[in-house]
C-alpha cells in the first residue's frame, strides 16, 4: 500500500515537471514568434494611428456639426488629402528646391564644419573620434541594420496606408473580431479596454500634432529672424521630426547647425541655442498642455523604449516606440492596477 502511494505521488511530480516544461516551451515559442513578427506589429500600430487620426477628426466634425458618421468620415479623409495636396502645390516646389540644395551642398557643409572644428582642441578630438568610428566596420553594419525596413521603405508605407484605410472604414469589424477571442465573461472588460486604447491613442496623436505645429511655427519665426537660408525646409523638418521624441529634434538640428556654420560659428551657436530653447518650450509647456488629460509617460521610459524597440525593429521602432509604450501602460493599468486597487 505505501508503495502504491509513493508511485502515485511520483507520477504526480513527473506530471508537474512536464506541465512546467510545456509552459516554458510555450513561452519560448511565443517569444520567438513575437521577435519574428514584431516588425509586422509595428506596421499594424502605424496603420492604427492613421485610423485614429481620421476617426478622431471625424468625431470632432460630428460633434461640431451633428452630421452622420459617413459624411464626417468622408470629409475627414478627403479633406486631409486635399489639404496636403494644396500645401504641396503651394510650397512643394520651394521645399523640393531647398531640399535639393541642402543635399547638393551637404558635403561642402561637412568640410566647412570640419575646418571650423579643427580650430579648437575639443573640435579636433571630436573629428578624430568620428573618423575612427567611420573607419570601423561596426558603424556601416549598424546603420544598414538600423535603417533596414520590413518590406522596403515604399512597401512599408504602402502596407501602413492600406491597414490605416481598412481600420478607418470598418474599425468595429476588427475590434469585435478581437473581442470574440476573449471568453464571454470577460468581453465587457475587453471592450472597455479597447475603447480606452482607442481614446488614448487618439488624444496622444492630437497632442502630438499640436506640438509639431507649434515647433514648426516657432522654428520658422526664429530662422526668419536670424535670416537663415532655406528656413522653410528646416522648419518643416523640425516640425515633422518632432514626432519622434528625443532623437527627432536632434536629427532636425544637425542640418540647421551645419548650414549656420557655413555662415559663421556664432550663427551656428545661436541656431543650436534656438533649437534647444524651442524643444524646452515644447517639452515643458506645449506638450503638457496638449496632452494634459492623457496618461503621463516618464521621459526615461520613452528613451528606454526607443532603445529596446529600435534595437529590435530599427527605424520604425524608434518612431513608434512612444505609442507602443502608451498601449502597454494602458493595458497594465486597466488589466492589473485598477482590479488590484478595487480589491483592496
Automatic annotation (TrEMBL):
Organism name: Salinimicrobium marinum
Biological-process GO terms, alphabetical: transmembrane transport
Matching InterPro entries: AI-2E-like
Name assigned to this protein: AI-2E family transporter
Annotated family: Belongs to the autoinducer-2 exporter (AI-2E) (TC 2.A.86) family.
Membrane topology annotation: Multi-pass membrane protein
GO cellular component: membrane
A Pfam short name: AI-2E_transport
Keywords: Membrane, Transmembrane, Transmembrane helix
Primary localization class, coarse: membrane
Compartment annotation: Membrane
Record-annotated membrane-spanning stretches: 12-34, 40-61, 73-97, 146-169, 209-232, 252-278, 299-332
Domain of life: Bacteria
